[in-house]
Structure formats: C-alpha cells, structure tokens
Design goal:
The protein is α/β, with parallel strands linked by helices and 283 residues long. The chain folds into 3 domains: 174 residues, Rossmann fold; 39 residues; 35 residues.
C-alpha cells in the first residue's frame, strides 16, 4: 500500500529471511539475515522508493536492524535509523533456538505457558512503541521495521484494539513484506464480556429487589399496630360464647352497658373486652 499524505499512519516492514527462519527454529536476538533475506530487504527498499520516507525506526534485534540498514541504503536515506526497543519480537524464553514444533498461530495466541512473554505485556510494549511512532508520524513519513508476531500486535493496537480477544485472526506477514498502517486517534469503547454484562445486570436487579423488600417490610410494620387496635376494639357478641350458654346473660348485660355508655360519653375504655375470668362470684 502507498503512504497517504495527511493521514496519521506508518509503513510497516517485516525483516528479511533470517537464519532462524531458514533453520525453522525460534530466533534469538542475534540471529542475522541470510543471503536470501538480504536480497529481500533490497527489493523492499526498491519498492518503497516512491513513498517519500523521511524517518526509519527499527526493532533493536539484529535481523531487523540489518533489514532497516539495507532499505535505508536503497532509499539513499541520509539520516540514521532510530531504534525503538519496544518493537522487539515477542520473548519465548527457554524456547529460543529450539525447533518450531507448534502450528504458526500458537506463537501468537499462547499465554501463561512456560516463560513465554505474556500477551498483555506484548500489548503494553506495542502501545508504548506506537506512542513514539505516532508522535513522529505527525510531521514525518515513517517506516517501521519489525517482526512477525510483535508486528501483528502493533498493527492491532494501531487499529484501536487493546484486548487480544478483539484482535483479528493472526496472519503471518512474509519476510520483507510491507503494508501501510493507519493509526486510530480515538480508541473505541471496548465491548464488555458477556460474563461481566450479566454480572452487572444481576447486581442491579439484586439491589432493586433489596430496596423493594425493605420498603414493603417497613410498610407492613407500620400498619401492624393499627390492625391490632382495630381487632381488639371489635365488640364481642353472644355468638362468640354459643358453646357456653351460662355466659350469654353476662354478655347481654355488658353489651347493654356498652351501648348506654357510648350514647352518653364516647369512652372506648368501656367497650366490651373478652371475658377471661369466668362467671362472677355473685352468680
């Protein structure tokens, strides 16, 4: 792709074929280019002559530095190649110099295994590198020379992605392949995981239910004393003691006294209360 004037972007180039690529092992920081890799870098330089490159930055690893210097020579670049340490390839710890036994995508997606550099750390490094590149790209046309895996991460971060779950499927760039990368100025809001969304909904629902329950409980408690008073003020009738005929006369007498007292003085203290002591002694 061609560099577009006025856009915040840069051209990314993967290093040429290295000795590690040829031997199909995981490269160490000092792995050099092969003769074929040097030829690939020269061709990349010729392809980029019309791009008007004014700044070249590179990973500190030997294979990337060699590629950048060869391209600079093809472009008759007058300045020096700037090194950004955070552009280095993903670290594979004890796997370095060992055969590549896994499918290609494994080296992009593996996490938490052995002493392989965590994905989150690689993303953080690429964010730091991008911040430097973006600042240069505001006034310069930048060529960035890097690696397959960290280069993939860098391009995803430049597209505004900050979580590996949002990355595109990994695609390995060919040796000395190049592409234009547009830098997204505004980072889009990250979509929450389904688990986090449901957790939030459940929390909100729980709080609402708790508040509603407390309100109903307070209303019920406030109404309870009034209900008790009303129930205690209901006059008894002879039917309430239908199974005790000897008490009916007493009840009738008390009902008459209650009616007469209500007509003269509305005193609720004279209202008939349940009989609990049995028949009076003078009966």
């Amino acid at each position: 792709m061609r560099y577009t004037i006025g856009m915040s972007s840069f051209i990314f180039v993967r290093h040429g074929k290295s000795q590690a690529n040829q031997d199909k092992v995981i490269g160490n920081p000092h792995t050099p280019l092969t003769k074929e890799g040097q030829a690939q870098a020269r061709k990349a330089g010729r392809d980029l002559k019309k791009e008007g490159i004014t700044t070249i930055v590179s990973s500190p690893l030997v294979r990337a530095r060699e590629t950048a210097e060869i391209i600079a020579k093809q472009l008759k670049f007058k300045g020096e190649v700037q090194v950004i340490d955070d552009l280095r390839e993903r670290g594979f710890g004890q796997l370095i110099d060992r055969p590549r036994e896994h499918p290609g995508s494994w080296y992009y997606t593996v996490d938490g295994e052995s002493d392989v550099e965590p994905k989150g750390v690689v993303i953080a490094r690429c964010e730091a590198a991008l911040a430097q590149i973006k600042k240069i790209a505001e006034t310069e046309k930048v060529l960035v020379v890097g690696h397959a895996i960290s280069g993939f991460y860098l391009k995803q971060v430049a597209a505004g992605k900050r979580f590996f779950e949002d990355f595109d499927s990994p695609v390995e760039m060919p040796n000395s392949g190049h592409t234009e990368v547009t830098i997204v100025d505004k980072i889009p809001m990250q979509r929450a995981s389904k688990e986090a969304s449901w957790s939030l909904v459940a929390t909100v629902a729980g709080v609402i239910c708790l508040i509603a329950g407390m309100w109903l409980f307070s209303q019920e408690r406030a109404a309870t004393p009034e209900k008790q008073v009303k129930q205690s003020n209901i006059p008894l009738s002879s039917e309430d003691y239908s199974d005790q005929p000897n008490l009916q006369g007493v009840i009738q007498q008390q009902l008459q006294q209650q009616n007469s007292s209500q007509q003269s003085t509305p005193d609720t203290s004279q209202m008939l209360q349940p009989v609990t002591t049995g028949v009076p002694n003078n009966w």
